[in-house]
């Protein structure tokens, strides 16, 4: 038994039973299927991370986020004093995590693509978009860039799901998804994005 | 509970895989080298290559 | 502390037992149970706080208790118990003396000091950094130092284990290859070496940083190396509890592995690839490429999963074969129906096997899929998964084997046998509930490590589906049930060790706990392999559930906002 040394001195040459061979084969093939499924999804699926990341200082990231907010703020979120920013479709948009808020509130247009930049300016945070349930890890010092295309209308909450101190459970943010506006957003300057964006 | 291996075969008779599995120190080497290279070293290289934002 | 070995012969097994090894097994097991009791209590407090209708602790206290819960049960309870298993699988099973007992005691003392120091640091209140202690969140220096001392102690214990293997081989205390259970323990020990080395590599600089000697710890490097410890420590558990499954099946039923070759090869796949799954924690991280993520998260094309699936056939297969040899040959499942369900060692082990596979294994592979992790990372699904692997898998298995350790090593009869019979069921059902309801809440987006899902104090309101509240309530009830099961375990074990009837030879004869079915059950060559149709049905059900659940999650993923 399993508590004693094998009875045969040479046990490696014992033949396998058919059941064992079958199960090992099935399991091995299933493993290959699951492995190639991830690669297949990169080629054909719509939910993949871009692998685009930059080192950035927290100050620099905050500056860029504020620049976007200065340019495209359309209103304030209730009486919170937090700006609601409506950047043009296709542009680079920024959301920063800090103790304890996601800033600013973004207003995006349905089925339009945006290059979302995420970073923390202090500790690690967890960007968790609800109720869609998309979850990304956010680091200080690293800027993650991912192209995002909101495919449903409404109000979405961003909560923090990486523990970040005693106010962690109060760290929230918001993204609105609205119908595309007929005329472009009324801010004279073109988006400082596409050409001048990150690399 | 000691068990009786009636004939003691020469080491040469023992298949390679069995000899490998009977040697905890080779296994220890492999078990530490594999994740160190594939997970840690490769991971550190990835992080070291992250470009700086312009 | 005689270094010249001093043996007794076990009246139950006939094994030669080194008394020093026995004393060390006792010491480590006792301390393990203390940490289980403390950490388990913290766990109940956590669940009672996350139950919105109860919301027991305030936020500060909740995060503090959650930090302590993680360290005490995930690290201390399990590693102390594993050191006991390593000494058992080396010195006792190999009929050998334990090498360098003084170092083994030193290891024990360091582990106790380190574990106590880390607990003190957490309970003082300035080290509420969670088990993961992600930088740049900072704990007090003695939090890290406690963990480092504990880890070094554990590393010394591993050296004692490997040295004992050498001693046993040189002194020819066994012939041929080591027993399968010992081989499983070797697997666990190898993974432990990598685990502890990773811990040292990252915790020592972090400790220096906490004292101001180092300016900065890179957050991504920290996470990569920290998870080399954090996840691999749970892979030690997998290897150890699979070894214990084989051990319990052998002791209770005389079960013999279907094939030494297959079972050992499965352990070899663990040695080579299991630790790569540390990448599961970095799948939605910036700065690490998809190539790295896919290769590592899949344990190199799921070769370690292959190992687990092999054990998933060979453990129940060994049990079925043994039962059929005893004469339970009717139909497909008589062997299972007439298994010793009243024996807590067996019932705990079998429930652990089923729950580890169906709840922990499947959910782990699914959420470890690079893209699917997007809809799961850091939600309550994650603790739901690992309570199925670590609590239903490892802790329940260790509880089950305790019902054999107390009579065999402590030489005491189990007190309150009626209660002992029920204990694994109550604990097991509670844990199944914890695991399922947390996974359910996570699917609904509830965050892990979060004090208040009503977001009362937040500047903007957040709407959480009503079902999530129901899930958290059911999770609380399940945690109470598991808490009761855990308390029963502690009462039975402590009571038996202190007050159990001494198990002398007469008692051992009258109340045998080691299976005695004669050679017919335990000894047969593989050429006369018995058929295992029941096991085939079980693995077929498992495989179907696995495939369905896997593709359902791809479907869920395909519906969320496109990302690229």
Which descriptors would you attach to this protein?
heterotrimer, A: alpha+beta, Immunoglobulin-like, 2 domains, 12 strands, B: 54 residues, mainly alpha, disordered N terminus
What's the structural blueprint in terms of helices and strands?
The complex is a heterotrimer of chains A (199), B (54) and C (564).
Chain A: H1 18-44, E1 52-55, H2 58-72, E2 73-77, E3 82-85, E4 92-98, E5 101-103, E6 105-109, E7 114-120, E8 125-130, E9 134-138, E10 142-148, E11 154-160, E12 172-178
Parallel strand pairs in A: 3-6, 4-7, 6-12
Antiparallel strand pairs in A: 1-10, 2-3, 4-5, 7-10, 8-9, 8-11, 11-12
Chain B: H1 16-21, H2 24-48
Chain C: E1 7-9, E2 16-18, H1 19-50, H2 59-92, H3 101-124, H4 141-170, H5 180-210, H6 219-230, H7 232-253, H8 260-273, H9 290-297, H10 299-325, H11 334-337, H12 344-367, H13 381-408, H14 417-443, H15 466-499, H16 505-510, H17 519-522, H18 533-558
Antiparallel strand pairs in C: 1-2
Can you put this structure into words, describing what you see?
The complex is a heterotrimer of chains A (199), B (54) and C (564). Chain A is of the alpha+beta class and 199 residues long. Chain A folds into two domains: 17-48; 52-178, Sandwich (Immunoglobulin-like). Chain A has two helices and twelve strands. In chain A, the strands form two sheets. Chain A has a seven-stranded mixed beta sheet. Chain A starts with 17 loop residues before the first helix and ends in a 21-residue tail after the last strand. Mean pLDDT of chain A is 91; it is low at 186-199. Chain B is mostly helical. Chain B has a domain at 18-48. Helix content of chain B is 57%, strand content 0%. Chain B is rod-shaped. Chain C is mainly alpha-helical and 564 residues long. Chain C has a domain at 340-509 and 529-564: Up-down Bundle (Cytochrome C Oxidase, Chain A). Chain C is 69% helix and 1% strand. Chain C has a two-stranded antiparallel ribbon. In chain C, a hairpin with a 6-residue loop joins β1 and β2. The radius of gyration of chain C is 23 Å and the shape is globular. Chain C starts with 6 loop residues before the first strand and ends in a 6-residue tail after the last helix.
């Amino acid at each position: 038994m399993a508590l004693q040394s094998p009875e045969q001195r040479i046990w490696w040459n014992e033949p396998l039973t058919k059941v064992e061979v079958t199960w090992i084969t099935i399991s091995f093939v299933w493993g290959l299927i699951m492995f190639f499924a991830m690669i297949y999804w990169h080629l054909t699926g719509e939910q993949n991370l871009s692998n685009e990341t930059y080192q950035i200082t927290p100050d620099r990231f905050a500056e860029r986020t504020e620049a976007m907010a200065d340019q495209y703020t359309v209103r304030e979120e209730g009486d919170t004093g937090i700006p609601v920013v409506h950047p043009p479709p296709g542009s680079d948009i920024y959301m920063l995590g800090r103790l304890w808020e996601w800033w600013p509130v973004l207003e995006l247009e349905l089925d339009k693509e945006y290059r979302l930049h995420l970073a923390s300016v202090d500790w690690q945070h967890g960007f968790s978009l609800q109720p869609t349930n998309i979850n990304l890890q956010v680091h200080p010092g690293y800027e993650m860039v991912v192209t995002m295309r909101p495919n449903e209308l409404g109000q979405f909450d961003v909560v923090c799901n990486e523990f970040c101190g005693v106010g962690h459970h109060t760290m929230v943010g918001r993204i609105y998804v609205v119908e595309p506006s007929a005329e472009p957003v009324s801010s004279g300057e073109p988006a400082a994005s596409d050409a001048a964006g990150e690399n | 509970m000691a068990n009786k291996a009636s004939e003691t075969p020469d080491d040469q008779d023992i298949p390679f895989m069995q000899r490998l599995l009977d040697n905890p120190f080779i296994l220890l080497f492999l078990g530490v080298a594999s994740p160190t290279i594939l997970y840690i070293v490769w991971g550190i290289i990835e992080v070291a290559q992250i470009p700086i934002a312009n | 502390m005689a270094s010249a070995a001093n043996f007794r012969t076990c009246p139950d097994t006939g094994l030669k037992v080194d008394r020093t090894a026995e004393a060390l097994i006792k010491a480590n097991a006792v301390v393990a149970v203390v940490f289980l009791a403390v950490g388990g209590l913290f766990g109940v407090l956590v669940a009672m706080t996350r139950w919105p209708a109860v919301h027991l602790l305030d936020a500060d206290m909740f995060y503090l208790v959650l930090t302590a819960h993680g360290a005490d049960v995930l690290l201390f309870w399990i590693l102390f118990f594993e050191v006991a298993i390593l000494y058992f699988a080396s010195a006792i099973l190999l009929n050998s003396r334990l090498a360098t007992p003084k170092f083994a005691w030193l290891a024990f003392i360091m582990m106790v000091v380190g574990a106590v120091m880390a607990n003190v640091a957490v309970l003082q209140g300035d080290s509420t950094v969670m088990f993961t202690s992600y930088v740049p969140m900072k704990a007090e220096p003695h939090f890290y130092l406690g963990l480092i001392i504990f880890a070094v102690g554990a590393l010394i214990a591993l050296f004692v284990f490997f040295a004992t293997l050498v001693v046993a081989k040189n002194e020819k205390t066994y012939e041929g290859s080591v027993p399968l259970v010992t081989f499983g323990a070797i697997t666990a020990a190898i993974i432990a070496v990598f685990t502890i080395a990773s811990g040292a590599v990252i915790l020592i600089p972090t400790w220096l940083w906490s004292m101001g000697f180092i300016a900065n710890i890179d957050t991504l490097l920290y996470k990569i190396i920290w998870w080399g410890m954090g996840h691999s420590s749970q892979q030690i558990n997998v290897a150890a509890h699979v070894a214990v499954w084989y051990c319990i099946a052998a002791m209770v039923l005389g079960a013999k592995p279907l094939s030494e070759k297959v079972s050992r090869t499965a352990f070899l796949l663990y040695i080579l690839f299991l630790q790569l799954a540390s990448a599961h924690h970095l799948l939605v991280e910036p700065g690490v490429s998809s190539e790295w993520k896919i290769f590592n998260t899949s344990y190199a094309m799921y070769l370690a999963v292959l190992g687990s699936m092999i054990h998933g056939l060979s453990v129940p297969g060994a049990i079925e074969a043994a039962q059929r040899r005893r004469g339970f040959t009717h139909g497909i499942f008589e062997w299972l129906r007439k298994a010793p369900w009243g024996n807590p060692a067996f019932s705990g082990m079998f429930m652990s096997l089923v729950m580890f596979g169906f709840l922990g294994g499947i959910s782990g592979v699914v959420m470890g899929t690079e893209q699917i992790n997007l809809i799961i990372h850091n939600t309550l699904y994650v603790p739901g998964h690992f309570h199925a692997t670590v609590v239903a898998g490892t802790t329940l298995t260790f509880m089950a084997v305790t019902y054999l350790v107390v009579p065999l090593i402590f030489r005491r009869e189990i007190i309150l046998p009626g209660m002992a019979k029920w204990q694994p069921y109550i604990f097991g059902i509670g844990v199944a509930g914890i695991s399922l309801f947390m996974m359910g809440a996570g699917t609904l987006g509830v965050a892990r490590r979060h004090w208040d899902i009503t977001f009362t104090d937040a500047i903007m309101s957040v709407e959480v589906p009503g079902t999530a509240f129901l899930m958290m309530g059911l999770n609380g009830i399940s945690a109470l049930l598991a808490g009761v099961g855990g308390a029963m375990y502690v009462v039975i074990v402590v009571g038996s060790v202190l007050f159990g009837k001494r198990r002398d030879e007469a008692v051992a004869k009258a109340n045998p706990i080691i299976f005695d079915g004669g050679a017919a059950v335990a000894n047969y060559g593989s050429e006369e392999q018995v058929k295992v149709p029941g096991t085939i049905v079980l693995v077929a059900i498992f495989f179907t559930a696995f495939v369905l659940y896997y593709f359902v999650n791809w479907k869920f993923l395909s519906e969320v906002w496109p990302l690229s």
